[in-house]
């Protein structure tokens, strides 16, 4: 297996973990209001509403980053679009750093495979 394929797979793994994280954040922001359920005073309710909005925003961010990491991994496997490959590897660091760093290092070593003169 070539380095570009291994790096691409690592990017895709990071992207999938990012999407799973976004699902977790969306789930938490949806399920917590029903768990609390008690009538709350206005200040506490406003704080919880802000908390849920922040969780949904974080979930949306992880979803977008996960998708971009997967796109970079697909381009790495197909050995095309060097810019997308590097961007996907960098984004995969933001999503899940252990596989993201490995993907970036491997893909930087695989540049001759992807960028053909």
Blueprint (SSEs and pairs):
Elements: H1 3-36, H2 42-78, H3 82-95, H4 97-109, H5 111-114
Can you put this structure into words, describing what you see?
There is one protein chain. This protein is mostly helical and about 120 residues long. The protein has one domain (about 5-35, about 45-115). It is built from five helices and no strands. Helix 1 packs antiparallel against helix 2 and helix 1 (about 5-35) runs antiparallel to helix 4 (about 95-110). The longest helix has about 35 residues, at about 40-80.
Q: Separation of termini?
A: 21 Å
Order of helices and strands: HHHHH
- Number of separate domains: 1
| Shape by Cα distribution | rod-shaped
Given as residue ranges, the uncertain stretches (5+ residues, pLDDT < 50) are none
Rg, please? 19 Å
Class from helix and strand fractions: mainly alpha
Mean pLDDT comes to: 89
The tally of helices reads: 5
Number of strands: 0
| Main sheet: strands, sense, barrel | none
Helix content: over 70%
Relative strand content: under 5%
Could you give a short description of this structure?
The protein is mostly helical. Helices cover 87% and strands 0% of the residues.
Please give a handful of descriptors for the protein shown:
single chain, 117 residues, mainly alpha, 5 helices, 87% helix
